[in-house]
Write a structure and sequence with these properties.
Blueprint (H helix, E strand, L loop, with lengths): L2 H34 L7 H26 L8 H33 L5 H6 L3 H18 L3 H4 E2 L11 E2 L4 E2 L6 H40 L10 H32 L5 H11 L1 H13 L1 H25 L1
Helix pairs in contact: 1-2, 1-10, 2-3, 2-10, 3-5, 3-7, 3-8, 7-8, 8-9, 8-10
């Protein structure tokens, strides 16, 4: 194994391990709050789905790609290869739709006049659960042809006919390629347009609220950020980072499709970019979630209290 492959494998391994650790921690937190009902927030169900979809992406893409970077290509049989790629595509699509849903819910919460009946519906956890269920159904159907087009890894270096991601490749039949491209990318395009609109609405509302608060508190100490404002800033960071990574990934994918022989380095870069959002988004949520900071503070206090008690006993 060359030094370049070893370094690439270490990068993929680090990114995947960090992402799985962060998403698993949040998945435990959100599942605990949803099951116990302790300090449940309306968006916890959506965030729980987001971190689960991110974990699915990292398990189905990050781990196989790490093994490919370390020199293993033929570690999956045909059925497992199709299943892993199907899970990756479905997880990516659900993550996209969940970010869109989270963005829309927060925009309606900030400005209920956008859709008053929807604002009433969003107070019901059952309705939010139904919306999350629709995200899975949509991408289960959209990706239903993935097992048909996925093949084994390419033995040749020419990527002009097929697309190669190391452990598998896929060939799009010329007869249905245009139709499938439209079907597959239509939900993403509509979600992207909706996210831009919802994000613009939230930014406008936050700026207007900030001016109003500054006018009221011009002669006082500036107030602390409310929970809604912190949640909105976190969602805006998530959306902007997602759109940035997705745009770069889409450009690289288009480049690989048009160029005769893009090379394996281009495939590796596109995979690295595609895994950035699932790996680092949980840490944005951790920083902005006050429940996690409270848990950390309690843990530090308990540890300091235990150490002081132990010192007092020794004295």
């Amino acid at each position: 194994m060359g030094s370049g492959k070893l370094e690439l494998g270490i990068i993929f391994l680090t990114q995947t391990a960090v992402g799985i650790l962060g998403n698993s921690s949040l998945l435990c937190l959100y599942s605990f709050t949803l099951l116990t009902g302790h300090k449940v927030r309306p968006t916890d169900l959506i965030l729980n789905q987001l971190v689960f979809a991110n974990s699915l992406v990292l398990f189905s893409k990050g781990i196989p790609q790490t093994m490919v970077a370390f020199g293993l290509k033929y570690f999956l049989d045909n059925a497992a290869r199709k299943l892993v790629f199907y899970y990756h595509r479905m997880g990516t699509g659900v993550s996209f739709s969940t970010i869109c849903l989270l963005n829309g819910v927060q925009a309606i919460k900030l400005n209920p006049s956008i859709c008053r009946w929807m604002n009433l519906k969003l107070r019901s956890r059952n309705f939010i659960g139904f919306c999350c269920f629709l995200c899975w159904i949509l991408h289960l159907l959209v990706n239903s042809c993935m097992p048909i087009i996925v093949n084994g890894p390419l033995k040749c270096k020419n990527l002009s006919v097929e697309n190669n991601c190391g452990y598998c490749s896929w060939t799009m039949p010329g007869r249905f390629s245009s139709l499938y491209t439209v079907i597959y990318f239509s939900p993403d395009f509509m979600s992207l347009v909706f996210m831009v609109w919802a994000s613009g609405s939230m930014v406008f509302i936050l700026l207007r609220h900030k001016k109003r608060v500054q006018h009221i508190h011009s002669n006082r100490v500036p107030p602390r950020l409310s929970h809604e404002a912190r949640a909105t800033y976190a969602i805006l960071i998530l959306v902007s980072s997602f759109v940035t990574f997705y745009s770069i990934y889409a450009i690289l994918t288009l480049w690989m499709t048009l160029v005769t022989n893009p090379g394996q380095w281009m495939v590796n870069i596109s995979v690295l970019i595609a895994s950035c959002f699932p790996a680092f988004s949980p840490f944005v949520l951790m920083i902005t979630d006050t429940r996690i900071s409270v848990l950390l503070c309690l843990k530090v206090k308990n540890k300091s209290f235990s150490s002081s008690s132990y010192s007092a006993m020794n004295l």
